[in-house]
Amino acid sequence: MRERVRLVLATCFYYTGIVALAHWWIRRFRPRLIILNYHRARGENLRQQMRYLRRYYRVMHLEEALEQFYGTSRQQTDKRMPLVLTFDDGYRDNYSCAFALARELRVPITIFLIPGYVESGERFWWLEGKRLAYHAQAEKVTIEGQTYRLSIPEEQKALAQEIDRHLRHASSVAERETFLAQVRLAVGTSEALEQVDREALPLNWEQVREMERSGWVSFGAHTMHHPILSYLRDERELRQEVTECKSVLEQQLGHTVRTFAYPVGKAEHIGEAVIQAVKDAGYQWAVTTFEDVNTRQTNPYLLYRLPGDIEMHWLVLAAELVGLLGLSRLRRKYRAKFSG
User: Fold this and answer.
1) Which CATH code fits 31-121+201-308?
2) Which distant-in-sequence residues (6+ apart) come within 8 Å of 62 by Cβ?
3) Is residue 267's pLDDT more than 70?
4) How buried is 282 (Cβ within 10 angstroms: 0-12 exposed, 13-18 middle, 19+ buried)?
5) One-character DSSP codes across 218-266
6) Among 271, 184, 177, which Cα is nearest to 226's?
7) pLDDT digits (tens, 9 = 90+) for 231-240
8) Pairing mode, if any, of strands 140-143 and 58-59?
9) In the chain, which residue ranges form alpha helices assigned H by DSSP?
10) DSSP class of 328
């Protein structure tokens, strides 16, 4: 019911011209850059969102937008508010859906890649808890002395959460992968387990290079194996994850990679040592998942991104981006900026 009310309100705001007025006022107030953070790419909603955004915003590749925003390249005459569509991790549907839409609608996008997964083709670790718990072949699984009966939904859910907790807080990539191998062995394999959401598998290099050649997709770095960097025990591993990712991407793409996305990307997942490692590796900009819009005072190594939601109706997105809905993530932020 809440979503239906939000859609009704967003429709009224759009077709009465209130969205357009708010958009004009925000653009006039002071320069800002919106970066949207998607992961998966599918569905008609994404198409409609991209159609709306290309009409009312200056949609750009991330590096181009940052160069212009921070004044290091020639300013364009297009006065629309700059906006970037980013996709983290490099799922297969970023190729089959997002890339197809980018070409069709002529909308540039930026994808942050994890080279270790591109090369291995393994499933992303953060999807494994639910996949293994809900599609296990075994009837029960014991993890560190705790037995979970998989015929009981509550225990399936508990197992999924426990697997995710271990993987998320691993102090090294080796520790994470050893634990994951043990869990996979414990749950057993089946054809049904292997077929779960194959569009969630990583991109391969052939797809990456095809997207790069098109000119509609640019790429940034997202570590070599996607550990949560602040949880790594060894600073040498932290720095290797950041620098090796850059090196591999540059070798595969044939040009410098200047943008980085912190895995998970909240404050507790970053920290000063992580930021310094990113700077020392030679990146020029880094994006977080802190939810806000960027001004020219924003730290270039702590750039804000707003969540991209492929389930959201484009009318709701239009209202959200100008802070009109009462539950909007931006309403308080814009109000504070207008009053200050």
Assistant:
1) 3.20.20.370
2) 35, 84, 86, 110, 218, 220, 259, 285, 287
3) yes
4) middle
5) EEEE--SS---GGG-S-HHHHHHHHHHHHHHHHHHHSS---EEE-SS-S
6) 177
7) 999 999 999 9
8) unpaired
9) 2-15, 18-29, 44-56, 62-69, 93, 100-105, 115-120, 128-134, 153-168, 173-187, 191-194, 205-214, 235-253, 272-281, 314-321, 331-339
10) -
Q: What's the CA gap between 115 and 312, in Å, rounded?
A: 30
Q: Where are the domains of the chain?
A: 31-121+201-308, 125-194
What pLDDT, on a 0 to 100 scale, did the predictor assign at position 72? 63
What does the block give as tokens for 24? 């004009």
Residues whose CB is less than 8 angstroms from the CB of residue 118 and which lie 6 or more positions away in sequence, other chains included: 90, 202, 203, 204, 205, 208
Least confident of 36-40, 122-126, 184-188: 184-188
Average confidence (pLDDT) over 69-89: 84
Q: Write the CA distances from 21 to 25, 26, 55, 112, 328, integer angstroms.
A: 6, 9, 15, 34, 17
68 pairs with which residues across the strands?
none
- What does the pLDDT look like over 174-205, one tens digit per residue? 999 999 999 999 888 766 667 778 899 999 99
Looking at residue 71, its pLDDT comes to: 82
